[in-house]
Specification:
The complex is a heterodimer of chains A (305) and B (445). Chain A is built from 8 helices and 4 strands; from the N terminus they run αααββββααααα. With 305 residues, chain A is mainly alpha-helical. Chain A has a two-stranded antiparallel ribbon with strand order 1-2. In chain A, strands 3-4 form a two-stranded antiparallel sheet. With 445 residues, chain B is an alpha+beta fold. Chain B is built from 9 helices and 11 strands. Classes of the chains: A mainly alpha (305), B alpha+beta (445).
């Protein structure tokens, strides 16, 4: 076939441009490590990569929320564990003060210890989270959960339920319980603060008859037992929630590894393949240039002298 | 007889010289657009043509007749090359103007979809610790960043729209001016006599103009017997007829930019011009307008939904929530005071019920809608790129096929020059032989 001289030039220019563009793309893919340089390089893959990136960001936030909830639950658990120990001690004090061998001096010192225990219990019930908010004040995020009024009675200052922490997929978990569920009891149950304070008052008052004192001690002991049971239940609930959070954390961490791997498969450059392709493209580019220079230097006009 | 030999020698000299000139022309114009290589048309001289009708000599010819210059060109291959060029130009323009649409829609961590995700994640952090100020500040920053991303994308799409509209205007102006030149050329073609170098030059200029016009807009051409070319648009509207040409302009009409030919006459408006740069530009303008509309709709939906969710809550002071965004035009985040983030259920100031409802907007799939829009543009661009590659190779092949007929091959011309040079020398030798013969005769005394 007859080939016009311009066709030879145009064709070679076309080849050189194509090879140059291919080299440029491969260089960009290798240096950025990303196969998808723009969405048009793979519209469907690119959309999936966006979805996966968003899912990873959501997981990261959920993990932070899980950390927040875990920290709050752990602090709450530690506080009521300490409260439980205080109540155990109050129970021992009550039992020894109730024995027939205890004298007025023993009861007086027991009363003094109970006053200490009552303060300790109040301070535990007013435990705060990392941000300084009360743990057991329900919906209240400021102030204290419990306060002693002028008459010496300890009452709950909070309201409602504490905010739940979202842990992804529309689920949420309670990171604390309102104080009354743990310390006050419901219905006609005796608050643990009232139980200790009543006990202390009865032991501190020498004018009480043994029978009356005995009745108060029995009632307080029953209140303390109920309190200990509520705390044990609360610790079981906290433990179950902590375990659930732990499972969710592990699930998210595993899912994140999976998401990262999938995303890598979709958008990362296969470096070895790209390097080989680049070498090939550059070899062809060089060869095309050399051949072009050689072939085009041949002209019949050179021989016409 | 010897007189005849002189005449024969002279005709050979003339023919060889003309052929050398044509070869020289071919070499000089090897890369002139629209140039088709030429060849001299020559025939053996009619024996006896120089004699009287009554006496004929059968002893030999009377040299060579040079009847003209032929332009070597194949109409079919020319048409193929033009239509392939029109397709290639169409996809080149479409690709070139779809790239800014894609670039206007950010991707990766800076994408609008990621911004929506960040706002929801920041909302989740507020819900986890509803009274702390730090997560609230982050939530407002995320809202501001999202609004900024929407604004930037809208602005860039508007720039693309303006750019492509300008390009359409320029292309229309060029079509008008090419049509005018072709109409003027029609007048010249009617005056030129066929087979002359002038006619060939007019044909070259016409082909160059037609090549360019074809690259801009799909046309149909037909050659009239008087040598003029009639040109019609794909829609059938006459663009050039004899010495008259239409004016082509772009205007905004229903459904976007329209092309109007002869705006002062028939007002024939169209949005489909078949192929060529103009077709690609119109496609790109439509794509850009669609992307812009979709983005506006998404901005409206996002602003409406987030505003409603935020206004359903109450802030740290117990006041009911204000709108998060103004818009949808120039979407802006309105709240700057972190205490004003409405996370609680009214009338409370503490709690996170409203924020839990707000982060439930993840199920409205706004981010997925954005991704789908990016995918739509990316798919259109990828298709344009593939079509462009295919159209380019078709065009290259069609042009190579056209040039195989009408293109100049320098080696061919070099060998022609060699041949005609030798023919010239040979003809000169004939003349000198004739002279020698005369001299011989004169020497007979």
């Amino acid at each position: 076939m007859r080939v016009a001289t311009s066709t030879g030039f145009d064709r070679t220019t076309g080849h050189l441009n194509r090879l140059q563009a291919e080299s440029d793309l491969l260089t960009a893919q290798i240096s950025t490590g990303k196969r998808l340089q723009s969405p048009a390089d793979g519209p469907a893959d690119s959309a999936r990569v966006s979805g996966l990136s968003r899912a990873r960001a959501e997981h990261a936030q959920t993990l932070r929320n899980i950390d927040t909830a875990t920290a709050r639950l752990s602090l709450g658990d530690a506080a009521i564990e300490a409260a439980s120990n205080l109540l155990d001690r109050a129970r021992e004090v009550a039992l020894s003060a109730a024995s027939d061998t205890a004298n007025a001096a023993d009861r007086s010192s027991a009363a003094a210890e109970l006053a200490q225990l009552s303060d300790g219990l109040l301070s535990n019930a007013n435990s705060r989270d990392a941000a300084g908010g009360p743990l057991f004040a329900g919906a209240h995020a400021k102030g204290v959960a419990y306060a002693r009024d002028a008459g010496g009675a300890v009452t709950w200052q909070g309201t409602g339920e504490p905010p739940v922490v979202p842990i992804g997929d529309g689920r949420a978990i309670a990171a604390a319980d309102p104080g009354p569920v743990i310390f006050d009891g419901t219905g006609n149950g005796l608050s643990v603060f009232a139980a200790i304070d009543d006990l202390r008052a009865a032991l501190a008052d020498p004018s009480l008859s043994a029978t009356t004192r005995r009745a108060v001690i029995d009632q307080s002991l029953s209140g303390l037992d109920q309190g200990l049971e509520r705390i044990a239940n609360a610790r079981a609930r906290f433990g179950a929630r902590l375990a659930a959070l732990d499972i969710e954390r592990n699930r998210l961490s595993a899912a994140d590894v999976e998401l990262t791997a999938t995303r890598g498969k979709l958008e990362d450059t296969d470096i070895s393949a790209a390097t080989v392709s680049l070498s090939r493209a550059q070899l062809l580019l060089q060869a095309t240039r050399d051949t072009f220079a050689k072939v085009r230097s041949l002209s019949l006009f050179d021989s016409l002298r | 007889m010897s007189v005849d030999l002189l005449g024969i020698g002279a005709s050979g000299l003339r023919a060889a010289r003309a052929a050398l000139e044509v070869a020289g022309d071919n070499v000089a114009n090897a890369s002139t657009p629209g140039y088709a290589r030429r060849a001299t048309v020559q025939a053996a001289g009619q024996a006896g043509a120089a004699m009287t009708p009554l006496s004929r000599s059968f002893s030999g010819g009377v040299g060579v007749d040079l009847s003209g210059v032929r332009r070597i060109s194949d109409d079919f291959r020319n048409a193929e090359a033009r239509s392939a060029t029109a397709d290639a130009e169409r996809f080149r323009a479409l690709q070139a103007w779809l790239e800014p649409v894609q670039a206007a829609l950010p991707t990766g961590d800076a994408s609008i979809g990621a911004g929506i995700g960040e706002l929801l994640d920041a909302g989740s952090a507020v819900a986890a610790d509803p009274t702390a100020l730090a997560p609230r500040t982050k939530f407002l920053a995320a809202a501001d960043s999202l609004a900024q991303r929407f604004r930037a994308a809208t602005d860039k799409l508007a720039e693309q729209q303006k750019g492509v509209t300008d390009a359409i205007g320029t292309a229309c102006a060029r079509v008008t001016s090419l049509a005018r030149s072709l109409a003027a050329l029609n007048d010249e073609a009617r005056r030129a006599s066929p087979g002359t170098a002038e006619a060939a030059t007019i044909a070259d200029r016409r082909d160059a103009l037609l090549d360019e016009l074809h690259g801009l807009v799909a046309i149909r051409t037909s050659l009239a017997p008087d040598g003029s070319t009639e040109i019609r648009c794909a829609s059938g509207t006459a663009l050039v007829s004899g010495g008259h040409s239409a004016i082509v302009v772009a205007r905004n009409g229903a459904g976007g930019v329209q092309i109007v030919s002869d705006p002062y006459g028939s007002h024939a408006a169209t949005q489909s011009v078949g192929s060529g740069t103009l077709a690609g530009l119109l496609d790109a303008a439509r794509n850009g307008a669609d992307a812009s509309d979709a983005l506006d709709q998404l901005a409206t939906a996002v602003a409406t939904a987030f505003n409603a969710a935020h206004q359903a809550g109450s802030d740290l002071d117990g006041d009911s929530g204000a709108p998060l965004f103004s818009g949808p035009a120039e979407l802006t985040a309105l709240i700057t005071d972190p205490r004003k983030v409405a996370a609680a259920a009214p009338p409370a100031s503490e709690g996170n019920d409203a924020m839990l409802a707000l982060i439930g907007l993840r199920d409205a799939n706004f981010a997925e809608r954005y991704d789908a829009q990016v995918t739509q543009v990316a798919t259109a661009l990828a298709t344009a790129q593939e079509s462009s590659t295919a159209a380019n190779s078709t065009r290259d092949a069609a042009i190579a096929a056209r040039d195989a007929i009408s293109g100049v091959n320098l080696d061919d011309e070099a060998s022609d020059i060699l041949r005609f040079q030798q023919a010239y020398q040979a003809a000169a030798r004939v003349l000198s032989t004739a002279r020698t013969m005369f001299d011989t005769l004169f020497d007979l005394r």
